[in-house]
Design goal:
This protein has helices at about 15-35, 70-80, 125-130, 160-165, 190-205, 260-270; strands spanning about 5-10, 40, 85-95, 95-105, 110-115, 140-145, 145-150, 170-175, 210, 215-220, 225-230, 230-235, 240-245, 250-255. By secondary structure, the chain is of the alpha+beta class. It has a single domain (about 1-280), classed as Nitrilase/N-carbamoyl-D-aminoacid amidohydrolase, CATH 3.60.110.10.
Length: about 325
């Protein structure tokens, strides 16, 4: 295709699962009517963001992949409209629970599953109580309209996630999310930081990026959270092509020529000039090989210092 039209949706969620899924269907239909080929709904759109509190009863919201109402409805809709839809849902797999995403191709086929890799923990975002760390690794899918990479919410803060999907051949990066106010820091507004972080992913990988967030006020046990929307589409230089406001429900679209962007990306040499042999610190938590004081190369920098000396003085 000469151009692929991508779309972000943005909406508020209620306590009624069927109503939420119906609303997502309406927004996907609106996007398809605007010519969209790939439509990204927000994270965990079947209900309110339940991770505000640590409540065991919320585990009852999880379902296996083949029993998820959201996945089933979006699969039928994708086949009807001929669009690609990544679907975020709360997955139960035997005794384990994941924040997962099913990639649905334009024929309605579930192409595979991604389980969120980075799991946050903090006031209002108590995800480690509910979700095990994903075990799928970063994934991309060759859909009818291009190769799509998807991270989920907290994944969006990690350049390693974006770069991994780019290396796997992605044409576009997608991030469904749920982010808003900070109950422990009422004055904090992370929307600008959030946007700029992902603009950097787009620019560093020369790749379009789509982020879909929810809007509206939701209530926890002793506090409320307001999700700030601001869903956006960025171009391959990190430029904002479209961005929503902080409260309205809407659809955003933008057209990209993946083939032309691929050629431009190759011409810049960003991937040709990478040095994986120097990136060993990325495979550690603290950039070091072992415990402090265990480097016995007194005359050199260490085997994996990153300077290229090979541990030689």
């Amino acid at each position: 295709m000469a151009e692929v039209i991508v779309a972000a949706t943005q909406m508020a969620c209620t306590d009624n699962e069927s109503r939420n899924i119906d609303r997502v269907c309406e927004l996907v239909r609106e996007a398809a009517a605007m010519g969209a080929h790939i439509v990204l709904p927000q994270e965990l759109f079947s209900g309110p963001y339940f991770c505000k509190d640590e409540l065991p009863e919320h585990f009852a919201l999880a379902r296996p992949l083949d029993e998820s109402p959201a996945v089933r409805r979006m699969s039928a809709l994708a086949a009807e409209l001929g669009v690609v839809i990544p679907v975020s849902f709360f997955e139960r797999s035997n005794q384990v629970y994941y924040n997962s995403l099913a990639m649905i191709d334009a024929d309605g086929r579930v192409m595979g599953l991604y389980r969120k890799s980075h799991i946050p923990q903090g006031p209002g975002y108590e995800e480690k109580f509910y979700f095990s760390p994903g075990d799928t690794g970063f994934r991309v899918w060759r859909t009818r309209y291009g190769t799509v990479g998807v991270g989920v919410c907290w994944d969006q803060w990690f350049p390693e996630c974006a770069r991994s999907m780019a290396l796997l051949g992605a044409d576009v990066l997608l991030y469904p999310t749920a982010i808003g106010s900070e109950p422990a820091e009422p004055a904090c507004d992370s929307s600008g930081h959030w946007t700029r972080t992902m603009q950097g992913h787009a620019a560093a990988n020369m790749m379009p990026l789509v982020a879909s967030n929810r809007v509206g006020e939701e209530f926890g046990k002793g506090f409320s959270m307001t999700f700030y929307g601001s869903s956006f589409i960025a171009g391959p230089q990190g430029e904002i092509v479209q961005q929503a406001g902080r409260s309205e429900e809407c659809v955003l679209t933008a057209a990209f020529d993946f083939e032309a962007i691929r050629a431009e990306r190759a011409g810049w040499g960003l991937f040709r000039d990478r040095r994986p042999d120097l990136y060993h610190p990325l495979l550690t938590f603290d950039g070091l090989d072992g415990l402090p004081g265990e480097d016995d190369s007194e005359d050199g920098c260490g085997d994996h210092c990153g300077c290229g000396c090979g541990g030689e003085a």
